[in-house]
Automatic annotation (TrEMBL):
Segments forming domain Acyl-CoA dehydrogenase C-terminal: 256-383
Protein's name in the database: Alkylation response protein AidB-like acyl-CoA dehydrogenase
Keyword NADP: no
Organism: Saccharothrix carnea
Domain Acyl-CoA dehydrogenase/oxidase N-terminal span(s) in chain numbering: 38-108
Cleaved signal peptide residues: none
Length: 414
């Protein structure tokens, strides 16, 4: 067994074997095939601070952007385990490209929360990309037939090549906050607009993950028909494992797992051939212990992610709901996701230290991976809010980010 066998999923960590001619196997094979190209062009991607147009088309050609569309659309309908494997394979090549693929592949997932006629009018191709920030920072004024949307949002990953932009906003009626039906003093929704109606603001000068192009963006007084609004508590067009409120978060661990695996393989290759004044690097005690420790953390973390996803899929594909998971099983989903981000950063940091001064040059991928993993760990799914939410749920209290558990409403465990 090689390190690459682990990265590519051929040993079946946490996932059921797939037929070699299945849509999932085909998309995964294409993702693995383009990873070396993404690695070759990683410095260019980072310098551009967005995905170059030709690489967007390379990703589109893998099928990654269509993997969330159901078979009723003619889509491949990859389950969440399979989707995560694809994102992991692409992130093994480049973190920015993997991040954009992860975000852009949500189009088919969002389509399930739209009326079928509206969704099919919007997504004329299964390979269309959706970007945007879901947290409600904009303002949507109720008008006949829909809303007038205005606001500025951060973190529009992939927005420079998106077809649609989805954004959270608070709702107002005649200038006053509109209360929610569930007693929320100020209701909010998600609003989807064509990319042409969005102004991209070039703010994405960051420590890492530069290639994701996660710029700020603004929308000014754009009419959004009621049909192009989304709430995760209402599935309008679909059923089954992917028609769930937290579905868009599930494949996110693929990015840190792919980067951690890439760093491990890189350092193992160096260690296997490098000979210095003190002898072969592979014979050095510190090298051996560091590699083994990182491999142990990677294996355990990857098993946790895929194990939680697999258990969720078993329940949902058998006709169950998220409420049929035990409290521990449900909490394992956001906890394993957060742990993947934090562990990837820890692995990269330890390997960076192992290589010492050779890591510090920009030509070294270790420099980029260190910055990428530190930046991605600032995302909400990798933050302490996840710990609070999972811990509160396990204790029968109120999670601050209930959606991370797939909980809609009050969030207390029944």
């Amino acid at each position: 067994m090689t390190a690459t066998d682990v990265q590519t999923g051929t040993i079946g960590v946490g996932a059921d074997p797939v037929s070699p001619d299945s849509p999932a196997a085909e998309i995964l094979a294409r993702a693995k095939a383009v990873a070396p190209l993404l690695r070759q062009r990683a410095a260019e991607i980072e310098s551009a601070r967005r995905l170059p147009a030709d690489l967007v088309e390379v990703l589109r050609g893998t099928g990654v952007f269509r993997m969330g569309f159901g078979r009723n659309w003619g889509g491949p309908e990859l389950n969440s385990v399979e989707q995560t494997e694809v994102i992991e394979a692409l992130s093994y090549g480049d973190a920015g490209a993997g991040w954009c693929a992860m975000i852009g592949s949500d189009s088919g997932l969002y389509a399930q929360f739209l009326d079928e006629a509206v969704a099919k009018e919007m997504f004329t191709s299964l390979d269309m990309v959706t970007a945007g920030l879901l947290f409600p920072t904009g303002r949507a004024e109720l008008v006949p037939g829909g809303y007038r949307l205005t606001g500025r949002w951060q973190f529009g990953s992939g927005i420079t090549h998106a077809d649609w932009v989805i954004s959270g906003a608070f709702i107002y009626r005649d200038g006053q906050p509109e209360p929610g039906a569930d007693g929320d003093p100020h209701d909010s929704k998600l609003f989807i607009v064509p990319r042409a109606d969005v102004e991209v603001i070039d703010t994405w000068h960051t420590t890492g993950l530069a290639g994701s192009g996660s710029c700020d963006y603004a929308i000014t007084d754009i009419f959004v028909p009621e049909g192009r609004t989304v709430t995760f508590d209402t599935v309008r067009n679909g059923e089954g494992p992917l028609a769930q409120p937290e579905v868009h978060m599930r494949n996110m661990p693929g990015v840190p797992l792919g980067v951690a695996r890439a760093a491990l393989d890189h350092v193992r290759e160096i260690a296997s051939t490098k000979v210095g004044p003190a002898g072969a690097m592979a014979d050095d005690y510190r090298t051996q212990v560091t590699i083994a420790d990182c491999e142990a953390d990677f294996a355990a973390t990857r098993h946790a992610v895929y194990g939680a996803l697999r258990r969720q899929h078993e329940v949902l594909s058998a006709g169950g709901t998220l409420d049929d998971l035990t409290a521990d099983e449900r909490a394992a989903l956001p906890l394993s996701r957060r742990h993947a981000f934090r562990t990837a950063r820890s692995i990269v940091s330890r390997l960076y230290d192992l290589l010492q001064t050779s890591s510090i040059y920009q030509r070294s991928p270790m420099d980029r991976w260190l910055r990428d993993t530190n930046t991605m760990c600032q995302h909400v799914v990798a933050q302490d809010r996840i710990l609070q939410s999972a811990g509160a749920y396990l204790l029968g209290s109120k999670p601050s980010f209930a959606l991370s558990l797939g909980v809609i409403g009050g969030g207390k465990k029944s």
